[in-house]
Amino acid sequence: MGHRSIQKYLYDIQQSILSIEEYLGEKRDFIAYEQNKLLRRAVERELEIIGEAMALTIHEL
């Protein structure tokens, strides 16, 4: 698929990073993060998306 696919994967990575930043907010309190199961799961899912997109990007190269 080439260049277009890579751009989509990079876009997905960027969006996941922005989502993580939004979820965590200005105050990055690890204790609060650790105690919030919903927040942890949301961040973990975004990290999965980043990992999948990176793997697909490498595969396209």
Would you kindly provide a written description of the structure presented here, covering whatever features stand out?
Helix 1 runs antiparallel to helix 3 (37-60). This protein is an all-alpha fold and 61 residues long. It has one domain (3-60). The chain has three helices and no strands.
Count, helices: 3
* Class from helix and strand fractions: mainly alpha
Total domains, how many? 1
Gyration radius over CA: 14 Å
Q: Percent of residues in beta strands?
A: under 5%
Q: Level of helix content?
A: over 70%
Rounded average pLDDT = 95
GO cellular component, one term: toxin-antitoxin complex
Keywords: Hydrolase, Nuclease, Toxin-antitoxin system
Protein name: DUF86 domain-containing protein
GO molecular function: hydrolase activity; RNA nuclease activity
Describe this structure in a few short sentences:
By secondary structure, the protein is mainly alpha-helical.
Topology:
Blueprint: H1 3-24, H2 30-35, H3 37-60
List keywords for this structure.
single chain; 61 residues; 0% strand; elongated; mainly alpha
